[in-house]
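F.,

This is the one I mentioned.
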């Protein structure tokens, strides 16, 4: 189908000239097929070919995050935060994902909002981030409501903080899964 044709074209393009964009887009096709190891290898290759581009750094961290490889995801975010200008939307999205990894969801919301505000270059990525922000806001509202319900209930044995953070992270991870497909589509419009 279409995916097989796209992959064939990306592979031919890469055989002729190893363009970082073609390598990256092929990697995203692998991610769509849930071949995450190949996707990660491809994104890492795109980064080696063009380390100055922010998009692949962010995507690598998101792929690693979705694979439960949190420390590697955190490490993949470092170059993004160092490379990007503080006015770059990828900087804010990288800080937001790092905040999720650090269980600081209010900070994640703040940086998603800032990233959306400064993203006048890529409407498709902005749309993806707006969706993430909406999901995060819904999650935070549900969490606040649950905390209020717990506060108003008779005292019970309190959950350990670490377990509570794992529960929060697991729920947030649910809505992150679909964001890879949106990011792949958004990359088609991004300047390299």
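My design for it:
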């Amino acid at each position: 189908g279409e995916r097989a044709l796209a992959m064939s074209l990306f592979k031919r393009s890469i055989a002729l000239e190893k363009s970082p964009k073609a390598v990256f887009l092929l990697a995203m096709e692998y991610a769509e097929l849930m071949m995450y190891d190949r996707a990660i290898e491809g994104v890492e290759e795109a980064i080696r070919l063009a380390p100055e581009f922010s998009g692949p750094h962010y995507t690598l961290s998101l792929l690693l995050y979705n694979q439960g490889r949190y420390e590697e995801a955190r490490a993949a975010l470092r170059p993004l935060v160092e490379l990007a200008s503080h006015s770059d939307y990828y900087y804010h999205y990288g800080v937001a994902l790092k905040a999720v990894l650090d269980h600081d969801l209010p900070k994640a919301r703040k940086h998603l909002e800032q990233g959306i505000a400064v993203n006048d270059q890529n409407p498709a990525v902005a749309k993806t981030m707006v969706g993430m922000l909406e999901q995060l806001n819904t999650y935070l509202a549900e969490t606040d409501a649950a905390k209020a319900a717990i506060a108003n209930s008779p005292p019970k044995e309190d959950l350990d903080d670490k377990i509570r953070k794992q529960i929060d992270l697991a729920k947030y991870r649910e809505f992150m899964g679909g964001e890879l497909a949106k990011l792949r589509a958004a990359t088609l419009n991004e300047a390299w």
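The CA atoms of residues 30 and 58 lie 17 Å apart.

Talk soon.
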